[in-house]
Amino acid sequence: MTFTWNWQIFLQQNGGGQSYLAWLMSAWGWTMAVALCSLLVALLVGSLMGILRTTPNKALVLLGNAWTELFRNIPLLVQVFLWYHVIPSIFVSLRAVPSFVLVVFALGFFTSSRISEQIKAGIGSLSQGQRHAGLALGLTLPQTYRYVLLPMAFRIVIPPLTSESMNIIKNSSVAFAVSIAELTMFAMQAQEETARGIEIYLAVTALYFVSAFAVNRVALYIESRVQVPGMIGGSK
Amino acid sequence: MLKHTLGITCLLAFVMPAALAQSPMTLDKVKSSGTITVAYRDSSIPFSYLDDKAQPVGFGWEICGRIVDEVKKATGQSNLKVQTQSVTSANRIPLLMNGTIDIECGSTTNNSERQKQVAFAINYFYTGTRFLVKAGTAVSSLDDLKGKTVVSTTGTTNYKIIRNLNEEKKLGIDLIGAKDHADSALLVQTGRAVAFGMDDILLYGLKASAANPAEFAVVGEAIQVEPYAIMLRKDDPAFKKLVDDTLAGLMKSGEFEKLYKKWFMSPIPPKGINLNAPLSKELLDNIKKLSDKPAA
User: Fold this and answer.
1) Is the model's pTM score more than 0.90?
2) Residues B80 and B71 sit within 8 Å (Cβ to Cβ)
3) What pLDDT, in 10s, does the model give residues B107-130?
């Protein structure tokens, strides 16, 4: 018996009021929602922690280091389960929080530890002279960061940040373990219902690839728009 | 050239009778080969599974044993060799059809789609989707779960059934999917979901092996009841009659209920867990009716 393709299944109704194609699109929507919200959390928190780790204040450095080490050393799936099962049984008020929020925090904090490391490396790659020159000009430390250090550091670390953004799209598949109706969950349920595993998994793979690749292209565009001639990462 | 043609003709003369002799008549096959191959499952508790000594045991397995005894009488071979073969959901039908196994006593659903390829004996179990809830929750059907959160395992037909009924009756149920049966039960335990919809026999197993079984209850009318039955090759009336007669004999003499109580209402290997699953209404009926009717 030769294997025959059957892409028509995507147009079939699944009995729950949608076609499989509509369900696939809704699952993709959930994946992107989880990924983009987590990315926002990760960028904000990760940048803050990375900056703290480069300040002269030892207490802030300790805070930044502790945060980074905590979230780097625990596997992502374990972190997701901690947020979903363990912490709500300690802080009972968290039980009312929707699982979407919990998984955004879990994925966001996990990625923020990686981003903080990259930001710290970016700031560290600048020569000390830049900081001292800023301070010597009479700028306060926050002003030095804002006007001198960060504009350069962020441009330098756009490539690693692109990788992290693409990783977040792929890591969003762990959300299926906490009952978010995203692409991985769609794949498992739809292939059981239609018995056409190959077509379903190919479609899901293609969507993950397209999503991650789109993020990659957007980051490339941002990089080309913000580059400054003469700086590291500037135009050739 | 002539020598070769002669050689080939002789070879064919030997091969062809052997090919024709592979008739699907199980009793003839067993008589001529002196062996019967019985299939078993690795973990379809309590129908057919491996105990802690990696030996097949179970309700279905024991019934298969009684059938093999009848086969020995029917073929007049008291020292018939009994071979065992492990099967999975995916390969049980192909292996039956190609003759690798002769009979399968597991947790195979008897439905008309499968009856295009294989035959089934008298139904010997009925399972339906019911709900695992915290003890004391009053749920008698899906309608009682209107507007509530219900969980089922991703990748199962039960998830599909609940979703479709929810849409059809517009119950507004928030159906979530968990990654496996243990996770679904955990969601009910922590209160994230009110009920877990799954095959009732699996729910009994989960309840029995929980840390605190009294915390849970299996409730609700069974949705979409499906029968399990012993599977045999199609178009083999003599063997089907033998198997059906064996089952009918067990059911009429009360031996079937004894076997049922042994596997479903007493401690079973390997851990001595008691499933506490009483005979369903459909099974009690079938012990009298002796029907092999498939699910739709």
Assistant:
1) no
2) yes
3) 888 888 788 889 999 999 999 999
